[in-house]
Design brief:
This protein is α+β, with helices and mostly antiparallel strands. It has 13 helices and 19 strands. The protein folds into 2 domains: about 100 residues, Roll (Ubiquitin-like (UB roll)), CATH 3.10.20.70; about 325 residues, 2-Layer Sandwich (Creatine Kinase, Chain A, domain 2).
């Protein structure tokens, strides 16, 4: 909700820094960033009355007969865009989408995450999330041609993205988005930026901003940044790992307990939260991994989850428990390793936090750990050990999603139905598409 203090700050900054264009940002249900600009003269009215736009022009928002929508800028998200000129500058704010009756729009992903955040808040809990975003730099946008052969943490002359990562980090920090780490990831041309944790809604805003900044900085350096989960069959794909924790209203991390049990300083509440993430993973996977290509990343690599499980040092676990640092209970967290950067961060974070909270509500107990010695077992072998396999395709994920009461309740009927229909259509189109692999194997063989 806009406060007078935040509004006054924005109005003074716009006047004092010669801001001539205010970009209003929001996302469609698939996570595509949308924007239109208003002038400073219209800004004060926008805070009070919203800015009307045609919702029927945004996929999944509204039918033509009910197309009027209002965008209400959130003054707490105001930032000047540092890559635009200082004279006649440009700023942005994320928006909450409402109906002409000033009611929250059922199809607004940001409103969906706010509902989940408030549900946690009503239980005395504050959900914090820190994303680790992987992506590739390529030579152009037409063909995925790699620009280096570097690997994990390499600092070498052939890591051509070193200066680009630096520029990206500095730009994000100019927009008040702190970067914990940036480094070259495992595959050639693959990079990673890890953002400092923030409250769930701010984290999703930060992810949307980071995706744009990464692409913007790449373009300015004659490169192309891609968040495609699996561009190459023979190289590891890109994930978007989510570090999650819960705090109480006094600032205490409720995942941590001083007494060690099973080698972990995890509270019963944390264990139930993890159990929820594990139990409902098949149901939310279509949200966190929403494309056909997402499941190419999840198939057959030792560093990605194939079953719903938890582990410590095992990076093939769905939920990994980072090592506790003595004297730092606030850093106690869980790392969800299945999401990828094509997901809508508002919906992905909402779905996974809801799963964890459901685990707490139901008092779920944490099952057995997936040990490192089991990392090379097949999914069939892991199933025999009692671990539930994750969906292996977008079609399987859509089936699990459709049967989920939790996802229907969390996302609301509007978003739930749209996502299900859109992903069913995507899967059908993919199944009807003849690939180069098929031509190579079948064209001359029969």
């Amino acid at each position: 909700m806009a406060t007078d203090q935040n509004v006054d700050f924005v109005l003074r900054t716009v006047e004092g820094r010669d801001i001539r264009f205010i970009r209003l940002w929001f996302t469609d249900m698939l996570g595509n960033l949308k924007s239109f600009s208003i002038s400073p003269e219209d800004l004060e009215e926008a805070f009070d009355e919203g800015v009307g736009f045609d919702g029927s022009a945004v996929d999944g928002f509204a039918h033509r007969e009910e197309s009027d929508m209002l965008a209400f800028p959130d003054p707490a998200t105001f930032q000047v865009l540092p890559w635009r000129p200082k004279e006649s500058g440009v700023a942005r704010m994320f928006c909450d989408i409402k109906t002409p009756e000033f009611e929250p729009f059922d199809g607004d992903p940001r409103a969906c995450l706010r509902r989940v955040f408030r549900a946690a808040d009503a239980k005395g809990l504050v959900a914090n999330v820190g994303p680790e975003i992987e992506y590739f730099y390529f030579a152009d946008s037409k063909v995925p041609r790699i620009v280096d052969d570097a690997g994990y943490f390499d600092l070498t002359p052939w890591d051509s993205a070193h200066e680009l990562r630096r520029d990206t980090t500095l730009t994000l920090e100019k927009m008040s988005i702190p970067v914990e780490y940036s480094f070259h990831a495992e595959s050639p041309s693959q990079n990673c930026v890890e953002l400092r944790y923030a409250e769930a809604l701010s984290c999703a805003d930060n992810i949307m901003t980071a995706r744009l900044v990464i692409k913007q900085m790449a373009s300015e350096n004659d490169m192309f940044a891609s968040f495609m989960p699996k561009p190459f069959s023979d190289a590891e794909g890109s994930g978007m790992f989510l570090q999650q924790s819960l705090f109480d209203h006094d600032g205490n991390n409720v995942f941590w307990q001083e007494e060690e049990r099973d080698g972990l300083h995890l509270s019963d509440l944390a264990r139930s939260y993890i159990a929820g993430l594990i139990k409902y993973a098949p149901e939310y996977l279509m949200v966190t991994n929403p494309t056909v290509n997402s499941y190419k990343r999840l198939a057959g690599h030792p560093n990605v989850p194939g079953v719903a499980c938890w582990g410590r040092r095992n990076r093939s676990a769905l939920v990994r428990i980072p090592t506790y640092k003595p004297g730092k209970p606030l850093s106690t967290r869980v790392q969800l390793r299945c999401p990828d950067p094509t997901c809508n961060p508002y919906l992905g974070i909402a779905a996974t936090i809801a799963a964890g909270l459901k685990g707490i509500e139901d008092g779920l107990e944490l099952g057995p750990e997936l040990l490192s010695c089991d990392a090379d077992l097949s999914v069939a072998e892991l199933r025999k050990k009692g671990f539930t396999p994750l969906p292996r395709s977008l079609g399987e994920a859509a089936d699990a999603f459709e049967a989920s009461d939790l996802m229907r309740e969390t996302l609301g009927e509007h978003i739930f139905s749209y996502l299900l229909n859109a992903k069913r259509a995507e899967w059908e189109e993919y199944n009807a598409t003849v690939t180069e692999w098929e031509r190579e194997h079948y064209y001359a063989g029969f």
